[in-house]
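Notes to self after the call with IL:
- keep both proteins in one doc
- input above output, always
- annotate only the second one for now

Protein 1:
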Amino acid sequence: MTLANFEISSFNLLRTLLLLSLLCPGTGNAESHIPPPNTLCTQPPCSQGVHLQLGGDGEMVVVFSSSSSAVPSEVKYWTKGSAITTVTGSGEAYSQLMWIARTLIHPDMGAPGATVKEILGRENTTRWAARAPFAPYGRGASYKNPTEVVDGIGAYNNPQMVYTSPVIHTVTLTGLVPGTTYYYTVANDLRNFTFVMPPNGDGSASVYPFTVAMTADLGQTDISAQTKELLKKHLRGAEKGSVMLLSGDLSYADGYYPRWDTWARFMEDLATEFPIMTVGGNHEYGDGEAWVSYNARYPMPYQQSGSVSNLWWSRDVGPVHLIGLCSYAETAPGSLQYEWLSEDLSSIDRSVTPWVIVMMHAPWYNSNSGHRAEAELMRQDMEALLVNNGVDVVLNGHVHAYERILPVYNGCRTACGPVYLGLGNGGNREGAYLPWLFPKPFYSAFRASTFGPGLLVIHNSTHAYYNFTRVGCQSKSVSENFENLDGADCTTTNFYGSDNSPNASDVMDTAWIVRPLNRLAGCSVPSCAQPAVPPTSSPNPGPTPNNGGNGKNCDNEDSAKVWAIVGATVAALIVGTAVGMFLGRRTVLKSIRPHSVVHQGLVDEEEDSSASVSM
């Protein structure tokens, strides 16, 4: 990497100025990539926000919304040459008090956003509360005339701060045949959609290769759109019906609930074609969200998997037993989630689903300065369950950066542990997290504060090929709020500094994940291959990134304190960046080559790239 990489060409400058006109905080123009409401129907306003999730075996769940309760909860579907089948389901609406976060007005990467005028229009009640209509007269109790935005939960006695959702319709199609292409349409919508039913977990060789697309912390920015487009390309290139995993933090509505509706439109072109399996994150839980919007819009197959909550569930799909866990529910032995997980893991038939993938939001292993050890209690409670049952891969989000973790258990590298994939870099409005901590743990194989999705292609019961591809970065080259959309040539530099990882300039991370046919062979007492980190002290980690809607923007009253912290670490960051640039030159070719092989989860960099994927 050279200093030339940081120079901005005249073309890039023009592109930057154009983006700045779209991403200026508070203008709302940054949402140009979000489609307008659907207009293709016979009785406007039309249904919209159509998306798919897997139900039980042979089931596909279709969710859509309508502005009128007169629209039936109805889906028509068919195959080529077959008659049309009509299925009815149920509909519900909900109301919540909106929550106003300062970062809604000044998001780091432009969207989702809201203008000061828009928010004050909701908080100001002078139009109707200035005078009580009947004696005794005077101002009503709801009177508010703010000149500045009031953060936090809206006033309960101000109906303008109440969000009432559209009708959320949920319809389950049953008896579907794996590998079959289905066509469908929803009530009051003239558009036709299509999907291929993913294979069941039946243990047959016909399920291979099986494709799983992965991301987390997606949001609805321009970077999010690039991540979504690459996910769609990956899934459309698959040979069989595929599935997408989204490990929490979906819409980044953060209590401003109309953003759930724009998110649904934003995702339609992907979510109408491929089922998206999700777990909730802190952005579905905090800022007044309390799981209400998430549970109504993203029903997971929890009842079909013996769970009592939509927040933890499992499902067999192709060669994978897929488990979703909740980072924000009790996890101790004896808790509902722990006891369910223990029973679910013990019921897995590895001859039917040899691969086990667990998704949860907050990571157990993370060498970034953001969200350090937030899930440590969950790890202590549940890690042994995962290792003792031979879990292969764990997907996380929460940390807005990418990191691949080698198989690890209780802080030690061991072939008995799962591979951890930190993919909280979908592209949400809060930007990338920096800096990375040094010395780098032995178990950290690749880390970079860039954006993009992951792709796992499972070739047989023991071999899977994994790929992460960068689609963009965050940059302060021209503006404080700037998305660098040039995934092929970018490096993140933002409020927290420059990416200090040796992988900062790498476009791609690839590896073979190779697991033994008997996942538990030799793992009754997992051995520790080497300590997690070298026996040296770690430097000051620097400022902690925004923890999800509760942080302050850099232009508020706490800015002086924040910049004081940044100033105290700037020397260390400059040195780290220089070292990262030097090491990046030496490692870039090695990092993007698709030759890393993981034997029982442990990387062997010297392995020949022609390693067979046959059993």
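Protein 2 (the one to annotate):
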Amino acid sequence: MVSLIEDNDISGPIDLKKTETVHDLRNRKIVAEQKMEAKERIAVESEDSDKSGKSKDFFALGADLYGVIVLMILYILQGVPLGLASSVPILIQKNVKGYSEQAAFSIVTYPFSCKLLWAPLVDCFYSERFGRRKSWLVPLQYAIGAVMLYIPSVIEDALGTEGGGANVKVLALWFTFLTFLAATQDIAVDGWALSMLSKRNVGWASTCNSVGQTIGYFFGYLGFLALDSPMFCNLFRGEDLETGCVTMQGFLKFWGVIFITTTSLVAVFVREKETTEEEEDEGFVQTYLNMIKIVKLRNVIVYMGCLCIVKACFSPVDSLTGLKLLEAGISKDMLVTLSAFLIPLQIVMPLVITKYTNSQFPLNTYTSAVYLRTVGVALITMLVYAAFIMQTYSPTFYIIGLVIQVIYSAGASMMFVSSMMQSARISDVKMGGTYITLLNTISNLGGTLPQTLSLFMVDRVTLSSCQGTLLATPPSCYMDKDTCVAAGGSCVTDVDGYFVLVALGTIGALLWKWKMSKMILQLQNRPVESWHVSGGK
């Protein structure tokens, strides 16, 4: 088997023997020299960064302040359709027959995990006169606006009613198309960020991505669910009504108008810098060949492997917790209300994390966050277990749940921002948005596939029995739940598959921290050039 870590890794451990040969001593000397070179190189990089006036203060960005604001707006728009797509599982939870249908709808997240397949198209084909990034950005955002104006008439019946009737296929089709457009827009924005900001402030691109998407996601997810909630709206209306302030159809139309208006302003008033010789692409075919070479780089293989594995460990909590709390009896309105308290924190946290994360060693923050997130998983598991046991929920229960979610969200934000900073630091500007998009989408794939698998498997690993029926051979609750109910019985859960999957994920996260965290810490000590096709191997 070929080792994933090179034998001459500059930060790897030195194997000391009791009796050393001349060859051993020579190897030790080489490794020591390589470590010294790495320290000197990192010191030089840090010194150059200080001399360049690298700013972590938003109001000290100078000429880049305008670019950061534009990027923030574009990422906010990008987050809205993602938030809307995430609200659908909450709306249809009582209208579907099982978690398998939720797994089918989860394909709406896949465009963001597969966008590297068409990223070279966005980098290579454009109008020089209109702008390399605007050539794609403007028509894509117009298309998103047009879809939002059209689909309200299509999805009204597809949402279904309580007890069944949700047309998951129709919902999945339209929202997958919407996220496909948003994913392609993300390629253009990621590439534009590399040229819009100066080198000393390019790290702010990850902050714009994180904060902007979070705000947009808030508008599309919690913003919509809150305005759709009768309980939330009655707080401000002064009367008890059974309907919310808006419907999905009206909300989509509103944001369709916003998209078209904002895109028109960007097209007219935002100028794009001319493509420099350094940023020139190498052609459509060559870009795909380079992409293949990138995924063959040992640094990329190890780095992406580590990120995908740890994301898979947290996927059961990410995909199932909200739905399980609804199943336990907590109302959708209360979940929305609690989540609303987290939004300001989720917006501020990336800014704080960016300010205090060492841009030369962002993965130090990433590995530390794994422990924090694992603690959050343990606390969330106990909260869900308590939710199923309790018949009523006191204010103390909700406050504890909010604190637990803060802990988990802090760990998730630290992991996201630090990985984005690492991607921006090592990306090859000659490949435009393709390189950074490739890294980000492989990482996303490490989260979306396990989440779909978790939704698909949770019913299958749940142990339940049909009780209260007079049938000689009670039917299987998994295969034939309707027969059990029709015979006067009920399916009683003995072991909930949620806790099985979360336990496996927690064990995996601890093993990752023990074994694999060292690998990515070693990787960040390597020269940036070693991550590029021209300098890597």
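Annotation: DSSP finds 20 helices and two strands in the chain. The radius of gyration is 25 Å.
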